[in-house]
Amino acid sequence: MLSRTMFRCGQMYSRVFAVEVDLLTEPLYFTLSAKPHILHHDYQRFFGEGKLFSLYVDSDNRIQKAQTHAEIKTKLSKLERDCVVLETCSYIPDVKNSVVKGFCIRDKSTPGISEEILKTFRQNESVCVFSYKLDGQYCWQELWSHVNQTEKAERQYITPASTPLYHPSTLGIRSSDVFYSKEEAYMVLQECSDILPESKAVLQLVDEQGESSGSDGFPVIVIEGLDATGKTTLTEALRESLNATLLKSPPQCLAPFRQCFDSEPPVIRRAFYALGNYITAAQMGKESLKAPVIVDRYWHSTAAYAIATAVSGRVENLPRPDSELYQWPEDLLRPNLVLMLNVNPEERMRRLKDRGQDKTIEENELEVNQLFRLKVEEAYKRIQNPSCISVDASPSPQEVLQQVLRLIRNKCQL
Ligand SMILES: Nc1ncnc2c1ncn2[C@@H]1O[C@H](COP(=O)(O)OP(=O)(O)OP(=O)(O)O)[C@@H](O)[C@H]1O
Ligand SMILES: Nc1ccn([C@H]2C[C@H](O)[C@@H](COP(=O)(O)O)O2)c(=O)n1
């Protein structure tokens, strides 16, 4: 009963499967073939330890797909004792948006505790579970879910595949993690409006703000940076010094919805932040006719956090510096200047501790996950048109303000 999208039209054999065995090394890549293939030692070791399963979520409905993926992640995170859960994905080389995300479960417990959880997904048409068997130098994959007792599952043999040019986690970013037009993000919230009523309210706010007019008025200056680098402190000081209007993205009108969208899967959460930028852009257009505008976070934040989260593993796995993924959306108002505040990790930790407020999951992640922080910082630097100018934000607030005022006067003739 191979009816799901990923198996349509015999796609199975043209797919490459990538398992993220360890964040610091390349994933293990393999394809499938109908004939046995002798595996070398690394593959034998990977497939031979304990019981091994993989699980993929696929559906033509991207909202349902994202939610099922998130539910599975939560369920699998409860697996402890002798179980390891790894990220995996499958894709067709050079085919955009062909990525299907999943998990790989290695279970060394007896009796296998993961099977109870995996059985709960059997009813779900969009979830496929495979099991793996190593026999000498060969290994095969079988469909484990959706196979009835009398039916014999077809075997596909594991065949090593070479490392692709682009890390597979970069393949599905466009329109799933980063949106390059208002329409793309708008459609996501439209698609989930039945299951998430808050989406309707957000869309209404987007409609009410209307389009942003490009402004030839006063300059618009965006202040970016990781949390606790001093954005709030600096933007408030700039407002006073320049008699400017201070805006934020996401804008104040979206504050009541933020917590709700922060707990949704990436495609929904990122669409929410993307739309927040368009509301802020409309405000920028209006306000910059009256005074200089200072903006606390904007598209650099949206894209950099989204890309860094979507890309697993090392900084080298990020899309290449010349990738179109770092290009500014054509329909989003461009600021005149984007400044990125940088402080060293120790100073940032000190400021975070002193402040002691609640942190978002991503802020916590920045603290515990050095790789994630490096990827966010690097993605910030790679964003183009406009790119950001780095500012050393470790001196005192007064010194940072003076440094930034000099830059603004220099670049914006203020
Ligand atoms: N230049 C500075 N030197 C020392 N401490 C600073 C400086 N700028 C800000 N701080 C302190 O660091 C902490 C974080 O600053 P702030 O809230 O301005 O950062 P932020 O970038 O807006 O953070 P978030 O993005 O999480 O809201 C605050 O306690 C603030 O008083
Ligand atoms: N324009 C924006 C602003 C924020 N975000 C996301 C990125 C992080 O997850 C988080 C950081 O915001 P803070 O806690 O500092 O207010 O919000 C975004 O995607 N786009």
TrEMBL record:
Location relative to the cell: Mitochondrion
Family annotation (SUPFAM superfamilies): P-loop containing nucleoside triphosphate hydrolases (SSF52540)
EC top class named in words: transferase
One family name in Pfam for this protein: Thymidylate_kin
Record has Nucleotide-binding as a keyword: yes
One MF term in the entry's GO annotations: dTMP kinase activity
InterPro entries: P-loop_NTPase, Thymidylate_kin-like_dom, Thymidylate_kinase
Entry keyword set: ATP-binding, Coiled coil, Kinase, Mitochondrion, Nucleotide biosynthesis, Nucleotide-binding, Pyrimidine biosynthesis, Transferase, Transit peptide
Gene Ontology terms: cellular component: mitochondrion
One GO-annotated biological process of the protein: dTTP biosynthetic process
Domain of life: Eukaryota
Sequence similarity: Belongs to the thymidylate kinase family.
HAMAP family attached to this UniProt entry: Thymidylate_kinase (MF_00165)
The name this protein goes by in its record: UMP-CMP kinase 2, mitochondrial
Organism expressing this protein natively: Triplophysa tibetana
Lineage: Eukaryota, Metazoa, Chordata, Craniata, Vertebrata
